[in-house]
Amino acid sequence: MANVIMASSKLISPPSISISSVAPTSRPKISLLQVSVPKISKTQLQSLSSSALKTLSLAAATSLALAPPSLAVEIEKAALFDFNLTLPIIMGEFLLLMVALDKIYFTPLGNFMDERDSAIKEKLGGVKDTSEEVKKLEEQAAAVMKAARAEISAALNKMKKETQLEVEQKLAEEKKKLDAELQEALAKLEEQKIESIKSLDSQIANLSQDIVKKVLPL
Amino acid sequence: MNFLLCSINTLKVLYDISGVEVGQHFYWQIGGFQVHAQVLITSWVVIAILLGSAILAVRNPQTIPTDGQNFFEYVLEFIRDVSKTQIGEEYGPWVPFIGTLFLFIFVSNWSGALLPWKIIELPHGELAAPTNDINTTVALALLTSVAYFYAGLSKKGLGYFGKYIQPTPILLPINILEDFTKPLSLSFRLFGNILADELVVVVLVSLVPLVVPIPVMFLGLFTSGIQALIFATLAAAYIGESMEGHH
């Protein structure tokens, strides 16, 4: 809506000035037409646009209010579907860009990433292998520990036996000594006993003689 | 004719208000042929951005990636993923094509929205996204057509043309028509979306210069990305379709 309003205001304003500027505007328009006709002839809309241009020029010549000359220029050049050499050039540029990007980006970085991937996978596999190795090593360590323990216990047993033997030997020796001393002491005691019994016998005989002497008075 | 003039007038007023120059080109002459200079200039900038950033980021790849390399690795993974889901296991050789399509269209679209092209004044026309021009989109679409024909022919030889009578020979005309509709829809979808997006933003900016156009600009960025993805995905899908075996 606003567009329409502005359009009407814009369209109303030009004629007040246009009368004085008919000559200067019409001259460049002719030159524009001369330039534009061959260009238009290339496009497919030749008949339509040329007829439009004719009417436009007619309209501009008779009443400037309907179509200002600048409009003719814009319509003539508004070429949205203007195919030309740009298309193959862009194709070529694109192909060159593709080759260049492939050389400096896709292939090197892709290879690099793939290599890194495989390296990481290899390392991961290696880690799994080493876990087996670690198991083996652990088993080895356990075996070594077992052997060491056995050794130690054997040594301990041996030492125990040795010390026990020694102690028993010593004990036996002591016992023998003690027994010998005991025997000696007993033998001595017996001897003394016999001696004292002997002396007692003699004394008894003496005493009995004495008693007899005393009791039996003569 | 009156109707034509009326519509022309409203169009003209729209142009005046928005200040956008639709379908105006800055022509160069190359050997008697005309080219759209603004498209070429912006496409060179886009290509320079792509090559420069790729060289910078991938120059010296590290095992543990840092910022730039990380981003480019992410992009490559994304492109590989798109190619793989559409083409299948033999996606490898097509990664450069799909990737370049995606990156070129994506950077082109975003350059139209983000780079201040309007600062550089041209004698005629104006700088905008390269995908804003029908030549670019048709070029890319035609390359896609060539690519999927090449894919099918190299995979199956002349047996590739057997797909035209595949479900039943009655569908032959439709199958042939498909080869024309594919590039047509590809190119016009991209062209229309980007042109409409830029037009909407420009018209809104000229009507309400502050705040209001910002959501539309973000929407435009979103649309641009989506369009790049759609183009690349469809191209990959067409290639995959022509390579897949119909036993």
UniProtKB/TrEMBL annotation, chain A:
<protein>
    <recommendedName>
        <fullName>ATP synthase subunit b', chloroplastic</fullName>
    </recommendedName>
</protein>
<dbReference type="Pfam" id="PF00430">
    <property type="entry name" value="ATP-synt_B"/>
</dbReference>
<keyword id="KW-0813">Transport</keyword>
<comment type="similarity">
    <text>Belongs to the ATPase B chain family.</text>
</comment>
<dbReference type="InterPro" id="IPR050059">
    <property type="entry name" value="ATP_synthase_B_chain"/>
</dbReference>
<dbReference type="InterPro" id="IPR034679">
    <property type="entry name" value="ATP_synth_b"/>
</dbReference>
<dbReference type="InterPro" id="IPR002146">
    <property type="entry name" value="ATP_synth_b/b'su_bac/chlpt"/>
</dbReference>
<feature type="coiled-coil region">
    <location>
        <begin position="120"/>
        <end position="195"/>
    </location>
</feature>
<keyword id="KW-1133">Transmembrane helix</keyword>
<dbReference type="GO" id="GO:0045259">
    <property type="term" value="C:proton-transporting ATP synthase complex"/>
</dbReference>
<dbReference type="GO" id="GO:0015986">
    <property type="term" value="P:proton motive force-driven ATP synthesis"/>
</dbReference>
<keyword id="KW-0175">Coiled coil</keyword>
<keyword id="KW-0138">CF(0)</keyword>
<comment type="function">
    <text>F(1)F(0) ATP synthase produces ATP from ADP in the presence of a proton or sodium gradient. F-type ATPases consist of two structural domains, F(1) containing the extramembraneous catalytic core and F(0) containing the membrane proton channel, linked together by a central stalk and a peripheral stalk. During catalysis, ATP synthesis in the catalytic domain of F(1) is coupled via a rotary mechanism of the central stalk subunits to proton translocation.</text>
</comment>
<keyword id="KW-0406">Ion transport</keyword>
<keyword id="KW-0472">Membrane</keyword>
<keyword id="KW-0375">Hydrogen ion transport</keyword>
<dbReference type="GO" id="GO:0046961">
    <property type="term" value="F:proton-transporting ATPase activity, rotational mechanism"/>
</dbReference>
<keyword id="KW-0812">Transmembrane</keyword>
Automatic annotation (TrEMBL), chain B:
<keyword id="KW-0375">Hydrogen ion transport</keyword>
<feature type="transmembrane region" description="Helical">
    <location>
        <begin position="35"/>
        <end position="58"/>
    </location>
</feature>
<feature type="transmembrane region" description="Helical">
    <location>
        <begin position="190"/>
        <end position="212"/>
    </location>
</feature>
<feature type="transmembrane region" description="Helical">
    <location>
        <begin position="134"/>
        <end position="153"/>
    </location>
</feature>
<dbReference type="GO" id="GO:0009535">
    <property type="term" value="C:chloroplast thylakoid membrane"/>
</dbReference>
<feature type="transmembrane region" description="Helical">
    <location>
        <begin position="94"/>
        <end position="114"/>
    </location>
</feature>
<keyword id="KW-0813">Transport</keyword>
<comment type="subunit">
    <text>F-type ATPases have 2 components, CF(1) - the catalytic core - and CF(0) - the membrane proton channel. CF(1) has five subunits: alpha(3), beta(3), gamma(1), delta(1), epsilon(1). CF(0) has four main subunits: a, b, b' and c.</text>
</comment>
<keyword id="KW-0812">Transmembrane</keyword>
<comment type="similarity">
    <text>Belongs to the ATPase A chain family.</text>
</comment>
<dbReference type="GO" id="GO:0005886">
    <property type="term" value="C:plasma membrane"/>
</dbReference>
<comment type="function">
    <text>Key component of the proton channel; it plays a direct role in the translocation of protons across the membrane.</text>
</comment>
<dbReference type="InterPro" id="IPR023011">
    <property type="entry name" value="ATP_synth_F0_asu_AS"/>
</dbReference>
<keyword id="KW-0934">Plastid</keyword>
<keyword id="KW-0406">Ion transport</keyword>
<feature type="transmembrane region" description="Helical">
    <location>
        <begin position="218"/>
        <end position="239"/>
    </location>
</feature>
<keyword id="KW-1133">Transmembrane helix</keyword>
<dbReference type="InterPro" id="IPR000568">
    <property type="entry name" value="ATP_synth_F0_asu"/>
</dbReference>
<keyword id="KW-0066">ATP synthesis</keyword>
<dbReference type="GO" id="GO:0046933">
    <property type="term" value="F:proton-transporting ATP synthase activity, rotational mechanism"/>
</dbReference>
<keyword id="KW-0472">Membrane</keyword>
<dbReference type="InterPro" id="IPR045082">
    <property type="entry name" value="ATP_syn_F0_a_bact/chloroplast"/>
</dbReference>
